[in-house]
Design goal:
single chain, mainly alpha, ABC transporter involved in vitamin B12 uptake, BtuC, about 75% helix, transmembrane transporter activity, ABC_BtuC-like, transport, transmembrane
């Protein structure tokens, strides 16, 4: 089947926001991400002045500060890419399920990718970066299909509450399986537990290079699905009546989200709540038009993960907290607020 071209007559959700205002907010997010990247380069066990940051960006490593910045550059790039991937994938998942609680962590997709990687390492001796990435992407995809299938059982099809419950149950079950696999394996336990927290420490351009094609493919599929997500927001019947191939549109967008989640989990570990918090905040500014919401979510996700990484370095000096811990501290109260705001009876 071929994807039909999006109809120019498809009505978009009504919004009271001007394109000019959203463009200004988008520019502000770009500036914020740039500032946070500079802070990520400057702050750590050793603070580095701006002059040394500039010289390090020019390739110099003559001083301790310049050498420190050189090691932080790939970490900063990875934090920005991972945050953008998680924020964008969260917006996609909420769009295709029409579920305000959808998130790669809550729906169990991140944990499915993590379980697949742990099984590959523990039982098959997996060691190469490409094997990690492919295994994580496949694990994320299979988990997404499984959660949707379980949430579709019974009456009422895949309601938001059923998807959230099936995703949470799947996440807990997979987390228990990871522990059961790792506990008897002292040779891999330390590395797996550290990776499972979720972080961007130890990043290198070599690791980023391995995961970058998967992220770029995920970004492209996700952003190209914006108009189709606007059609799906009208309801499956109306979208189909307007000429949209509903299942194909949903599958294409879901593939983009799975690529983003799986690739990010492979290189960073399962980082939760970014995909939940970011789209909700972005809708306050960008509205519900996915042509704006998706770029907003990518930039805001990058900013959130960069800020979390900086906060983690400041909060535990001279050590640091992994970004997975910081995002959990931010995201858990936000999740409770969303549940109360939506009033579970309405889900």
């Amino acid at each position: 089947m071929n994807v039909s071209a999006p109809s120019s007559n498809v009505p978009l959700p009504r919004q009271g926001r001007s394109n000019r205002g959203r463009a200004l907010w988008l520019s502000s997010l770009v500036a914020l991400a740039g500032v946070l990247m500079l802070l990520s380069l400057a702050i750590g066990t050793r603070s580095v002045p701006f002059a040394e940051i500039l010289s390090a960006l020019g390739g110099r490593v003559d001083t301790i500060g310049e050498a420190a910045v050189a090691t932080r550059i790939p970490r900063t790039v990875l934090a920005a890419l991972a945050g953008a991937a998680l924020g964008l994938s969260g917006a996609i998942m909420q769009g295709i399920t029409r579920n305000p609680l959808a998130d790669p962590g809550i729906l169990g997709v991140n944990m499915g990718a993590a379980l697949a990687v742990v099984v590959g390492v523990a039982w098959f001796g997996m060691a190469s970066s490409h094997a990690y990435i492919w295994t994580a992407v496949c694990g994320a995809g299979v988990t997404a299909i499984f959660v949707y299938a379980v949430g579709s059982l019974g009456r009422g099809r895949a309601t938001p509450l059923k998807l959230a419950l099936s995703g949470a149950a799947t996440s807990v079950a997979f987390s228990s399986l990871v522990i059961a696999i790792v506990l008897p394996r002292n040779d891999i336990a330390g590395g797996i537990r550290s990776w499972q927290i979720g972080g961007v420490g130890g990043a290198t351009f070599d690791r980023i290079g391995h995961v970058l094609p998967f992220l770029l493919a995920g970004f492209a599929l996700s952003l190209l699905s914006a108009r189709k997500l606007n059609s799906l927001a009208l309801g499956d019947e109306l979208a189909a009546g307007l000429g949209e191939r509903v299942m194909l549109a949903r599958a294409t967008a879901a593939l983009g989200a799975v690529l983003l989640c799986g690739a990010t989990t492979a290189v960073c570990g399962p980082i939760g709540f970014v995909g939940l918090v970011v789209p909700h905040l972005c809708r306050l500014v960008a509205g519900v038009d996915h042509r704006w919401l998706l770029p907003f979510s990518a930039l805001a996700g990058a900013s959130l993960l960069l800020a979390s990484d900086v906060v983690g370095r400041i909060a535990a000096r001279p050590s640091e907290l992994d970004v997975g811990i910081v995002t959990a501290l931010v995201g858990a109260p936000f999740f409770i607020w969303i549940v109360r705001r939506q009033r579970v009876r309405e889900l």
